[in-house]
Design a protein that fits this description.
Strand content: 5-15%
Number of helices: 12
Structural class: alpha+beta
Distance between the termini: 54 Å
Largest sheet: 3 strands, mixed
Strand order of the largest sheet: 1-2-3
Length: 308
């Protein structure tokens, strides 16, 4: 969602005043203004549609369809909607349980930089191990990330730390309700309640063992991972000497997966950005050099003599 920030200032004085505020406070004010403008715009569009409908010949089907849209638009409240949003603590406290992946298809309030948004959990992905903390301040580690929609056609794997523990603001609720008036609240509510029932279910000995295995796997010391990787490399070398292609490929995949888990997604993203910037700068320098060469500029001739 692209926001034209210049259209959100009342005048130059207002812009100057907001620019003096801390960045997070400024972004929050502009975001709230954007939501209000969006709300007014959508109300205007809806009023226009009603005018168009009134101007058409009165048909029973059209009247029924309009009535249905209005009913759907008003069929859930702020409290009802808040009740279907999973909180960070709910997920963090149950991160090692086998039923955790059942959170797919449920909804959360998640932070993108300084802006919160309502998103559906599309899937659970694995990546580099990172630290999470529950509401009691107890720390744990996991390699699980939640995949959510970021834009119209893009998705992003987010850490559990980005999920909100608070209720959404009323202005966010109004915006969401107008944006998706036909949101299937009853269907999602049933799914969310079933998931919460799983979380509240008494843990048996089998699940307890699974939880301990999962916890141990993610909280192992770094040297243990290094030792495990060294063993896999040695086994891979032995498989190569014996000509055991199947075992070699299997071990190669295990080593590759371990390497991928050690990559920080944020660092990798930053590395790619800097690579693009460096490549662009090299291209600009090359093009400038070619222009100077063709024009026979003194600067180019001088640098050429110095290199000679």
């Amino acid at each position: 969602m692209k926001i034209d920030k210049h259209s959100l200032f009342e005048d130059s004085e207002d812009e100057k005043k907001l620019n003096q505020l801390p960045e997070t406070e400024k972004e929050k004010i502009l975001y709230e203004r954007h939501l209000k403008l969006q709300k007014l715009k959508e109300k205007k569009e809806m009023d226009q549609k009603f005018k168009e409908i009134k101007s058409l010949p009165e048909k029973q089907e059209l009247k029924q369809e309009t009535k249905k849209k209005i009913e759907n638009f008003e069929n859930f409240t702020y409290d009802e909607f808040n009740s279907i949003l999973l909180k960070r603590n709910e997920l963090v406290n149950n991160i090692y349980r086998p039923c955790f992946n059942e959170c797919v298809g449920k909804f959360i309030r998640i932070r993108f930089e300084t802006v919160y948004a309502i998103r559906e959990i599309l899937s659970i992905e694995e990546g580099k191990i990172y630290e999470i903390m529950n509401n009691q301040g107890r720390k744990a580690k996991t390699n699980k990330y939640i995949k959510v929609k970021k834009g119209t056609n893009t998705t992003e794997n987010m850490s559990l730390n980005q999920i909100s523990n608070s209720n959404l603001e009323h202005i966010e609720f109004d915006y969401f309700k107008r944006k998706i008036p036909n949101f299937p609240i009853k269907k999602i509510k049933i799914k969310t309640e079933k998931f919460r029932e799983l979380l509240n279910k008494k843990i048996d000995s089998f699940e307890k063992n699974k939880i301990n295995e999962e916890r141990q796997r993610h909280n192992e010391m770094p040297y243990q991972r290094i030792w495990e990787k060294v063993k896999l490399i040695k086994q891979q070398e032995e498989a190569f000497k014996k000509g055991d292609k199947i075992t070699y490929v299997k071990l190669h995949n295990q080593i590759t997966k371990m390497d991928e888990e050690e990559i920080d997604p944020e660092e990798e993203k930053e590395r790619v950005i800097w690579e693009k910037i460096n490549q662009k700068n090299k291209q600009i320098d090359f093009e400038r050099g070619m222009i100077r060469k063709k024009s026979g500029s003194p600067e180019y001739s001088s640098s050429k003599r110095q290199r000679g």
